[in-house]
Amino acid sequence: MNHPTADIAAVLDPQTQDAPAVLVCHIGGTDSAAEIVAGILDDLEAAALNLFPAWLPGGADIDGRTLLDVAAVRVLAKRLAATSRHFGPFVAALAEATVRGTRLDPSRYARETRAAGLARVLATGYRRSHTVLVVTAPPDLPVDDQHVLAAACEWLAVQGRIGIAVATSAIPAIDRFTTVTVPPGARTGTVAHGESSSHSPEPVRLRYPALAGRPHPGSAAEKKLDAALQDCDWARGGRWNTIYQPDPLRAPICVDLMWPDARCVVEVDGDDHRMPAKYAADRRRDVRLQLDGYAVLRFTNEQVLDDVSAVVAAIEGYVRGRRRETGSTRSATEGSTR
């Protein structure tokens, strides 16, 4: 890409419905291409583990580490693989590692398998068709280091089947990649998913969206709340527009935003929720969720659009409190740093 890192945000914002899941990776220094690849794969795995259970249908109700839980997630992973492009053994092993609170043995799968598998898992978690990794580095890398970085990116793109975009400020001596130029005057701002527009702080190497899924495309309030939450570390683990159905004999409930670990649901209500029938239906949904141990917070569209900061602060305080009350052992920032 023929533009500084800051302009990546202008290119990606707003994202279309068919856009990929975008993660930003900053390489603070270069060793060998193999070591760069290994570090990136470790970071992608941490992101995937933190995103669980968004990428595993049915996994939201499994939160223990018993042998039964392990067996259950492996069955769910095999079901997922049977109806998708996921490689069954890999996604099952990743699901098991998540439940056990461990990491995958890097030697268990070839790097190609690991890279492609993680890219698919991350795309699934964010309800996208594929994953793109935006790679940046200091603009003053020696030429030899630029070639090392370029070789690592080529391996990830060709062998790992991950979409790669490299800021040319990181590899100005490399001319064998297709170049995309951003028109002058492009809007700049916060780099996609949390990187600073002036530099990428160490030791963080990989940043990714806090929330899985997508806000409703027709709801300006949900989109605004999503934008405000995506860079909040405490919000990790939240999922947009997900189906809650703890029992197959019960009717499913589609909730606007859920944090399974905190057992907290957030609803963003339009004017139609004030009508008697809709209001009564909302109360029935709330009671069902509350009986299952979930807290339900409701905000109107106007509250979100007029003062999103206050809404975010209210959600943060409640989610953090619920995590303490429920004794959640899963850190909201787990996997965000190396």
Automatic annotation (TrEMBL):
Signal peptide: none annotated. SUPFAM superfamilies: Restriction endonuclease-like. Residues 254-316 form the DUF559 domain. InterPro entries: DUF559 (IPR007569), Endonuclease_DUF559_bact (IPR047216), Restrct_endonuc-II-like (IPR011335). It comes from the Bacteria. It holds the Pfam family DUF559. Coiled coil: none annotated. PANTHER family: BLL0828 PROTEIN. This is DUF559 domain-containing protein.
